[in-house]
Amino acid sequence: MALRDNISGREYQKFADTVDGAAVRTTTVANTASQTSTESGRTTVSTAETILIQKQTLNGRKGSWFVYNSGNVAIDVSMYSAYISGAANFATATGSTEWDKVGSTQNIAAGNTKHIPFNNVYRYVALAASTSAGTATGTTAELFAL
């Protein structure tokens, strides 16, 4: 489809015919050089804090956590951040001065998925979870940051 068919203004391929009429054709290209994406794999979460995603370098990128609790008990998810250059990996219950809890604990009911966005600037982040009783098997978490 063309708006003009002359030497001064050919606009072929800019528009596409659809059942609803003409639409502007667009292209989306992922910028993989500036994104961080990682997945936890299937993890069993118990009453002891379990690391879902270990230290990830963001260097100021904003992003989102996506957590799926496929277990039969609710889980409590906490985000941690560190600013110090070369911070050690996050370790639960060590009292590390390098890592701080960010925001409030998010509760995810059994069988549910939760999207947890963050807009603050962090150097490193980690995600951990625990249950109040029992175990949640098959929990998965993903981090995507741009």
Account of the 3D structure:
The chain is an all-beta fold and 146 residues long. The protein has a single domain, classed as Jelly Rolls (Sandwich), CATH 2.60.120.380. It is 0% helix and 48% strand. The protein has no helices and eleven strands. It has strands at residues 15-18, 21-24, 36-39, 43-45, 50-57, 63-68, 75-82, 99-108, 113-118, 124-130, 136-145. Strands 3, 4, 6, 9 and 11 form a five-stranded antiparallel sheet that branches. A four-stranded antiparallel sheet has the order 5-10-7-8, with no helix packed on it. Strand 1 (15-18) and strand 2 (21-24) form a beta hairpin. The chain starts with 14 loop residues before the first strand and ends with a strand. 21% of the residues are buried. The mean pLDDT is 84.
Keywords:
146 residues, 11 strands, mainly beta, five-stranded antiparallel sheet, four-stranded antiparallel sheet, flat, Jelly Rolls
